[in-house]
Amino acid sequence: MQSKESSNGDAPVSLPKVTISTQVVAADSVQAEEVPTIPLDSLESISTLQPEVSVHAAASTHEVSMPVPLVVQASKYQRNFLEWFQIWWEGTRPAYLSLSLMPVLLGTTLAWTQTVSPKHPFGHFHFTHFLFTCLAIVALQVGAQLVNDYYDYLRGIDTSNIFGPGELIQQSLVKPTTVLSLGLTLLGVGALLGIVVSFVGGPWVYAIGLVGLLCAYFYSATSHSLGSLTLGELVSFCVYGPLITIGAYMVQLQTEHIETSVLLYSVPLGLFAAIIIHVNNMRDAEGDAQAGKRTIASILGLQWSRALFIVLVLWIYTLVVVVGISSAAPHLILLTLWTLPLLLVAVSGVLRSQTPASLHLAMHQLLSLERLFTLLLIIALIISAVASMLPHFPTNLTPT
Q: What's this model's pTM, rounded to 2 decimal places?
């Protein structure tokens, strides 16, 4: 027995001692009254709710039945042809195709104007050569962009950039190896088409095509890619300016001789390409720096990158004015100055931009500016060539 004093000082109160023990009772020694029972009504309720009860061994159960989800998961969703076409179309970044197609148009136009003469006032235009040149250039550019997406994915570049890549890999729409395989396939197709058109262009076109193919692959491939060695702007200037323009000129004219004017007119297009790549790198400067990709924009910073942008723009329009007012060149190329209003919009956008989204918008304005500038230049060259033949039209068109 244990005792406990009360709180008011009275005599201690005795409490019974409780002993807790555990006893194992055999089944044959238990009385009926000691076995817990379940009311019959409850058993009937359980039987009604679950009429069949199956007992399985835990080791034999290999599958778990899951309910059908209300929303179909993306991995089980089967896209139709139009949806896949839209995905791949956006993945190829069609807005950038003008960077390669505009030099082809310019080089072809310069070649055609060389064939305009009093005897042939309409000149000679080889549509097949022009078509195969366009197909080769587009295949090389799209292949280069897909290869770029793959190697950027491997190096962790643009992983969280919603404005950068085509999002084929970043959004898990297509397997990375599929993107690489298609990119390499398109590079191969572009190389084969380039070999075909080089038959009429001569050995220099082979050299130009080889340089373009190597730049397309090594721009982003390997850890020491051209784009990561601060050479992106220079490579873009050479490829999307003189190389493609001169190559298209040679293929269309079927000659190995290059006029000085061809090189001169290709410079503005190369500078536009360098500017667009530079603004693209300005937009991605923070992400590129974190991924270890060295670009001019990530090295110079925003303010000095803007200064370089202004210098490149001034070179373009200064060259146009100097060439346009000279007596040896057609003065109508000054029509390209009609792009000045759009230029002011794009320049002000770059100078005032503080976020990647605003720089992305400015870059697309520059792409539109480059297309308009090139088209006006081509129109000016065509009008100048046709106008020089106007005095000869009556004698050539009147039957003798």
A: 0.76
